[in-house]
Amino acid sequence: MKTITNALSLVCVGLLASTTVLAADVAPNDVKFDGLSVNESLTGAAGDPDSGRKIFSNRKQGNCLACHANSDMNDQLFHGEVGPSLDGVAGRWQEPQLRTILVNAKAVFTEQTVMPGFYTLEVGADVREDLIGKTILSAQQVEDLVAYLMTLK
Amino acid sequence: MKKHVQQLGVAIGVIGLSFASTSIVAEPVDDKLIIDDEIEMISRAKAPEGHPLPEVISGWHYRTPETRAIETDTFQNPGMLGVEQGEEIWNTVEGSEGKSCASCHDDAATSMKGVGAAYPKWDEDSSKPINIEGRINKCRVENMGAEAYKFDKGGQKPLTAYIKHQSLGMPVELDLSQGEMQSWWDQGKETYYKRTGQLNLSCASCHEQNNGKYIRADHLSQGNVNGFPTYRLKQNKLISLHNRFRGCIRDTRAEFPAAFSDTLMGLEVYTTWRGTGLSVETPAVRQ
């Protein structure tokens, strides 16, 4: 279980550990890729778009806004320009593909992409010691983000 | 004066914001860096052979008008306080030999002119490249009978800034034919392109592929090193180069190498070369 939770949200880990939710999660190394798609929910359930919206801008979680502009968040300061604007992204990709992009962007955009993989253990060298074997986001957080991105029509 | 600068720092944040939220792709500005209406700096130069970018551009061009203005005026530049402190240290006797830097080198304005533009250099004794900080420590230990400065401690930052400042405006040019400088350049290049940390990013991910773009509130520059030690308005102090290296590596959520380790010395050689032709700006002013 430790491997699939995020060190940055230790408090959450403690809370979730006592539930059975995480037992159903697909572990990072067991995620099934079908071409560009990851068809099944990583948690076995649909994500929560409202929670996903928060994870998107939270600097300690997705921090997606660091690289992507998103008009739905015009109330937030500082939208990055490193990746494309995510306005209308649900019209360009289907849910299983958005899940793949989030799990491991390299599976869709090649090794060259600068977008981090948020639910993969294929990471860079010299990972900070306390983060070894951990993913940036939890399965639940990825599903929440997928649900949120699907609202960006 | 310090207070004044802090307030400016706040104003700058607001301006950065309006750029970012209107999503204007803010390329490096077309402007001229002239210090005290006198010293014309080379802040854009044709890249040296083998460089991946066509032009090397100083980080100054990527900053807000307010930050840029502070660097053009040595009276306003708060980094100059560090330089003045460095001058005092230069003239202060320390150690068992009863010497100061000036006892051997006299007036830094002549003896140190050009030094900051040509370091790191090859050091035969250690068979490694040596930077200004290392050279200062070598003099302290071998010639003054004083203790080596620890990283970022004692007079290390101000004295380095003072020595580099003697080359203000002179173009950076390394001699890679000395000793084994070339193999340290090779090793530094490897570090530059190595993707590290949980975020899996290399120096090139940000400073080569994406310079000119915003990453959240930060306008990414080419990551050139010609202005170090640099005065950072956010931190209100001089920041050394190896501190900056460690910060950027830490931001990828990786373990970061020790200051002056072989890894970071290679990176200093390589990144200094990447800024070949740019004027020494020490002490540069950054956000």
Low-confidence stretches of chain B: 1-24
- Note the overall shape of chain A: globular
**Any low-confidence stretches of chain A, pLDDT <50, length ≥5?**
1-21
Indicate the CATH architecture of chain A.
Orthogonal Bundle
Structural class of chain B: mainly alpha
Mean pLDDT of chain A equals 88
Mean pLDDT of chain B: 92
CATH topology of the largest domain in chain B: Cytochrome Bc1 Complex, Chain D, domain 2
Number of helices of chain B: 12
Instruction: Identify the most extensive interface between protein chains.
Output: A-B, 28 and 30 residues
Beta-strand content estimate of chain A: under 5%
In short:
With 153 residues, chain A is mainly alpha-helical. Chain A has six helices and no strands.
Walkthrough of the structure:
The complex is a heterodimer of chains A (153) and B (287). By secondary structure, chain A is an all-alpha fold. Chain A has a single domain, classed as Cytochrome Bc1 Complex, Chain D, domain 2, CATH 1.10.760.10. Chain A is built from six helices and no strands. The termini of chain A are far apart. Chain B has two domains: 171 residues, Cytochrome c-like domain (Cytochrome Bc1 Complex, Chain D, domain 2); 86 residues, Cytochrome c-like domain (Cytochrome Bc1 Complex, Chain D, domain 2). The longest helix of chain B is centred in the N-terminal third of the chain and has 20 residues. The two termini of chain B are 17 Å apart. The chains are: A mainly alpha (153), B mainly alpha (287). At the A-B interface, loops of A face α1 and β7 of B.
